[in-house]
Amino acid sequence: MANLQEIVAWLDAELKISEIQDYPGAMNGLQLENDGEVTCVVSAVDASVAVVQEAARIPGSLLLVHHGMFWQGAQPLTGPFFRKIKAAMDGNLAIYSSHLPLDMHPDFGNNVLLAEAIGLASVSPILVKNGRPMGVAGNWMGNREEFAAAVAKAVGRDVRVCPGGREGIRKVAVITGGAGSEAAKISALGIDTFVTGEGPHWSFIEAEERGLNVFYAGHYATETFGVRRLGEIVAERFSLDRAYIERTGGP
């Protein structure tokens, strides 16, 4: 067993929770505490009802997620939200969420780990906002078909390609999740290829007009990396069992 507050203190400091601005509904940090003792670290992308119910089957677990319980803001404790909270509390489950802090982390963030999985070289931060990089960029040598295969292998699914740029790929930007709307900013950096999870309809047209290749690899699929690695690190640091809950099928 490990002490919940000791784990939370380490996570808060390592992820710089208090320093990184985020959407208010992200509510980064400890969202639900348990009785104070943790037996197992469980990680998942989303704190959905199904995920919470599964994690709560291991009494005393700490659930680490990328998307927490309060994206919709304040809501009544009825319906699915009631079932989620009840399952967590009945199972003595603690829940900790980290959104942008986990995307941006230089060692185990979604951006840098996806770049690593694709095989980018000389990876460095890009698009610094409020002192923090929104994404990373690196070098890659090959054509679009070869790169599409590399991305698909990294995320475990087919990817949608906007072939707006040149066939030979050299400089690649990565911002996981729903960052397709950043196409213009990426193009302005002189980058020829952009990997993200998803984007609005107009982002495809924007990329074509600016001569940018965009690989839409799936919002969920691009954001499994950080929580997996973070779960491994916490489990090792605090001598805990660990588990990962896979919930495929999202965009």
Please name the defining characteristics of this protein:
single chain; about 250 residues; alpha/beta; Udp-n-acetylmuramoylalanyl-d-glutamate--2,6- Diaminopimelate Ligase, Chain: A, domain 1; 2 domains; 6-stranded mixed sheet; 5-stranded mixed sheet; 10 helices; 13 strands; about 35% helix; elongated
CATH topology title of the largest domain:
Udp-n-acetylmuramoylalanyl-d-glutamate--2,6- Diaminopimelate Ligase, Chain: A, domain 1
* Terminal Cα span: 36 Å
User: What class, by secondary structure content?
Assistant: alpha/beta
Binned, the helix content reads: 25-40%
Task: Give the class-level CATH name of the largest domain.
Answer: Alpha Beta
Oligomer: single chain
Widest β-sheet, arrangement of strands: 7-8-10-11-12-9
Computed over alpha carbons, the radius of gyration is 19 Å
Strand content: 25-35%
Helix count?
10
Question: How does the major sheet shape up?
Answer: 6 strands, mixed
Averaged pLDDT: 95
Q: Give the name of the CATH architecture of the largest domain.
A: 3-Layer(aba) Sandwich
Q: What is the H level of CATH, i.e. the homologous superfamily of the largest domain?
A: NIF3 (NGG1p interacting factor 3)-like
> What is the number of strand segments?
13
Characterise the protein shown here.
By secondary structure, the chain is α/β, with parallel strands linked by helices. The chain folds into two domains: 2-98, 3-Layer(aba) Sandwich (Udp-n-acetylmuramoylalanyl-d-glutamate--2,6- Diaminopimelate Ligase, Chain: A, domain 1); 105-222, NIF3 (NGG1p interacting factor 3)-like (Udp-n-acetylmuramoylalanyl-d-glutamate--2,6- Diaminopimelate Ligase, Chain: A, domain 1). It is 36% helix and 28% strand. The protein contains ten helices and 13 strands. A six-stranded mixed beta sheet has the order 7-8-10-11-12-9. A hairpin with a 2-residue loop joins strand 7 (121-129) and strand 8. Helix 2 packs parallel to helix 3. The mean pLDDT is 95.
